[in-house]
UniProtKB/TrEMBL annotation:
Pfam families: GBBH-like_N (PF06155). The lineage of its organism: Bacteria, Pseudomonadati, Balneolota, Balneolia, Balneolales. GO terms for molecular function: metal ion binding. This is DUF971 family protein. Residues 32-121 form the Gamma-butyrobetaine hydroxylase-like N-terminal domain. Keywords: Iron, Metal-binding. It comes from Cyclonatronum proteinivorum. The keyword Electron transport does not apply. The keyword Iron applies.
Amino acid sequence: MGKIKEISLLSIKFNSRKGLLMSRYIPTDITVLSKEKELHIIWKDGHKSRFPFGGLRKNCPCVFCQGGHGEMGKPMDPIQFIADTPERLKLNNLKPSGNYALHMFWSDGHSTGIYRYQYLRDGCPVEAGILPPSK
């Protein structure tokens, strides 16, 4: 597989199947803002989430980052979104994983985290009052 070009702006539109998931967990638009180092998601219920890359990387749900199989399933820690994203951290690629998650590929070589939509929405730093809504 060749090197993936850096994303300057990626937008994924979803046509969700009715009744598949609760509207709270159905994304209708996903946008990667590389310059701002943020992932923005608009959900079917109208909520707008924003996730700085640094917080997403620190909240990676993979078994390695969670500390082993016994630690899996913990909720996202919205406090991790307060810290600035390191300049060198980039989201190199983002792919839908079925109809339930996003697979993220980071510039530090990490790519085993599958971020379920429920995990993202339940850990939204905007909804938790940690970050202001996007403009």
